[in-house]
Task: inverse folding
């Protein structure tokens, strides 16, 4: 029986996408090794959205991810400038090597540009993490994910809530609840981190003796009042706060980045395995990152989210995550509530994001699904 080849162009550009794409690439390798009637051929485009070595190159080296077929080297810029450059260069690649599928992840400008390029060339689009909604249209990420969903042939949802969000918008065709590919990644990489990461020793930290914080969302870094509120709360912390400083936040803070005061300890962005080690051993996590919210849940660490809403609503409903926004007193109150309550609820659910086999489901759908365009 002849083997049918199905080609996939994966578009990635930001640190969390490297991790998710690596997980699906491993699943593609397993699928091909099984020797079925379909062989998947993947080509990866790195837009260059994250171009700093600490945010990009180190990930490929540390996670043993094959180098992308092409790095489009777009770099930084305003949303319009960056997305336009990506769109132009992705389109050129897709015209030269038209695939059966374009695969995008999450909600970045790389996601938006990959989706637009694909649909304008009539190439079927598959969106991993489809259906997520914060219902805050001031967030660029919300616009990106909504547009990608509207354009997608396959909508690969991590949760029941994501499926329900799409149904409320009238989108039911091509929708699959596959679970969260980040859970697959954490299961795979947490074991590797235990063997390979010396982050605690290097930073002279004892388990559960520190809080871990990340701040990178434009809604916080580009709003002086919000950023000031967050940092004011950090300075009042009763426990040391380890703050791996995102390049965007460092640029905003300028010369004051190394002297935030209180018990805040600023460090450079850390490799993924070190980040997992810090998350697992933190007493509490404060973050505006969607991915870190989930990783906190998987490691059983209380999380305070430095946003007014979250796309991961089930974590708030389960009592694992508290929304605090950027008000210093609200942040301190959320931290205090976790400390007073002894951490996470004893009866929290354990299966919100699937069983760790999401990538295999995604690969099977791509291999077996039709490439017909959804009307």
Result:
């Amino acid at each position: 029986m002849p083997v049918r080849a199905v080609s996939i162009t994966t578009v990635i550009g930001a640190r969390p996408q490297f991790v998710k794409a690596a997980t699906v690439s491993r699943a593609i390798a397993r699928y091909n090794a099984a020797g079925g009637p379909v062989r998947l051929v993947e080509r990866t485009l790195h837009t260059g959205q994250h171009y700093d070595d600490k945010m990009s190159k180190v990930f490929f080296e540390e996670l043993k991810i094959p180098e992308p077929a092409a790095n489009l080297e777009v770099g930084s810029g305003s949303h319009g400038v960056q997305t336009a450059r990506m769109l132009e260069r992705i389109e050129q690649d897709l015209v030269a090597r038209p695939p059966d599928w374009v695969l995008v992840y999450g909600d970045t400008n790389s996601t938006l540009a990959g989706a637009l390029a694909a649909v304008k060339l009539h190439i079927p689009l598959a969106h991993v993490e489809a259906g997520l909604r914060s219902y805050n249209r001031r967030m660029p990420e919300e616009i990106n994910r909504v547009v990608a969903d509207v354009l997608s042939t396959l909508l690969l949802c991590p949760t029941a809530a994501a499926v329900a969000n799409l149904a409320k918008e009238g989108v039911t065709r091509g929708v699959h609840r596959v679970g969260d590919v980040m859970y697959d990644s954490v299961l795979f990489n947490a074991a590797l981190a235990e063997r390979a990461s010396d982050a605690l020793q290097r930073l002279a930290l004892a388990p559960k003796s520190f809080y871990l914080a990340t701040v990178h969302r434009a809604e916080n870094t580009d709003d002086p009042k919000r950023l000031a509120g967050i940092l004011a709360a950090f300075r009042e912390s009763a426990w040391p706060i380890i703050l791996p400083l995102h390049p965007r936040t460092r640029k905003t803070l300028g010369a004051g980045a190394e002297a935030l005061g209180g018990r805040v300890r600023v460090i450079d962005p850390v490799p993924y395995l070190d980040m997992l080690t810090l998350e697992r051993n933190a007493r509490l996590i404060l973050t505006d990152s969607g991915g870190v919210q989930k990783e906190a849940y998987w490691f059983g660490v209380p999380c305070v989210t430095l946003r007014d809403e979250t796309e991961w609503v089930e974590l708030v409903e389960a009592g694992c995550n508290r929304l605090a926004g950027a008000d210093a007193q609200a942040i301190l109150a959320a931290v205090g509530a976790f400390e007073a309550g002894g951490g996470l609820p004893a009866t929290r659910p354990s299966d919100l994001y699937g069983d760790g086999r999401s990538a295999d489901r995604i690969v099977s759908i791509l291999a077996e699904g039709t490439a017909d365009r959804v009307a």
Notes: Residues 4-180+354-368 form a domain with the Rossmann fold fold (CATH 3.40.50.2000). The longest strand covers residues 4-12.
